[in-house]
Amino acid sequence: MLEKKVPFSLDRIKEIAKTYPSPFYIYDEVAIIENIGALKEAFSWADFKEYFAVKATPNPFLMKLLKTVEVGADCSSLPELLLAEKVGIVGEDIMFTSNNTPASEYRKATELGAIINFDDISHLAFYEEHVGKLPELVCFRYNPGRAKEGNLIIGRPEEAKYGFTREQLFAGYRYCKERGVKRFGIHTMVASNELDYTYFIETAEILFKLVREISKKLDLTFEFVNLGGGIGIPYRPEDEAVDLVKTGTGIKAKYEEIILGAGLPSLKIYMECGRMVTGPYGYLVTRALHIKETYKTYLGVDATMADLMRPALYGAYHHITVLGRKDQSPKVTYDVTGSLCENNDKFAIDRELPKVEIGDYLLIHDAGAHGHAMGFNYNGKLRSAELLLRTNGSIKQIRRAENLADLFATLDFADLDNF
């Protein structure tokens, strides 16, 4: 089987674990920044901005790191807005893309001066009723329905809860123009973890054509197109990463043909990638606790699906390296499991690995997005620490591990005597 690169030696992980016991997440700062550079370079032909999807890895240290290279924040909730504010990301460096949105969240987004990306036409009147006059810049999320295919993770667009229909876009922009709004954007997001670069070119073509049509029919000018995120990562060793150069070049050709060819004003190009920014550069480190031989061979580790739920949630593949045992034989077929009282608490099923000994460290790859962020406390499990490998080789804890006091913080045990 093909292997993935491992940025840490076994000795280094053992050294780190003396201070931060497993399981823990660790992110590679150098690789994250280099990756952002590659994304920017692919769109250097445009007035381009990346808004990091905070939901992927909502850690303020990573957000602050990305801010140093002029990456904004794509937020979808009040806590995410507050995280952005804490690290100094404000104003139009925030894209607020939410759905089924409470008034309090619209108010906070407005207070911060964020770009508000409305998810539904009815939210315009809701905003006016609960917040006030519509923002000077509005953006709508488009759901193309059957005009565009989705994929496994995000589903078919016509069955998704997100966005305006085509007809609602025209009505919404007309409504806003009548109320004095002069700045406009458009957005869509119809795939997640997509590896076919042509998918993003097709998405851009759809939005560029909409901009052209709406601009002419409603006599308004668009300021930006947000192409969404959805760029996938090669979870399996045999997968190939999305070719960012081909993606950028293909979108440029459509932009020149459809926007510039129609004599329209230039557009800013935005994206809101999360997974591809941090995903390949985050690792879940866990240790072998037990090996159980029954009808199958079970390798029990100290992490659980409470730390990384993607494999249990939808059978997602995450590559696993047994540190210090690369290319070692014999190979053994394991189910790699946690300790939750759920049979789907598994990181891998029937996975062939080098023979594991109790105490071995395992590295679960591509956990840097939608990993720690999706953690939970079932069975009273405590969420793990997050660490950052800095450019100088040092380790910084960017989130401590939870303790029992955290778990019980919302309970008033003193009131039990009065129950």
Characterize the structure shown.
The chain has 419 residues and is α/β, with parallel strands linked by helices. It has two domains: 10-24 and 280-402, Lyase, Ornithine Decarboxylase, Chain A, domain 1 (Beta Barrel), CATH 2.40.37.10; 29-278, TIM Barrel (Alpha-Beta Barrel), CATH 3.20.20. It is built from twelve helices and 17 strands. The strands form two sheets. Strands 1, 10, 11, 12, 13, 14, 15, 16 and 17 form a nine-stranded mixed β-sheet that branches. An eight-stranded parallel beta barrel has the order 2-3-4-5-6-7-8-9, surrounded by five helices. α2 packs parallel to α9 (244-258) and α8 runs parallel beside α9. The chain is globular, with a radius of gyration of 23 Å. The model is unreliable at 151-155 (pLDDT under 50).
Structural features:
TIM Barrel; 29% helix; alpha/beta; 9-stranded mixed beta sheet; Lyase, Ornithine Decarboxylase, Chain A, domain 1; 419 residues
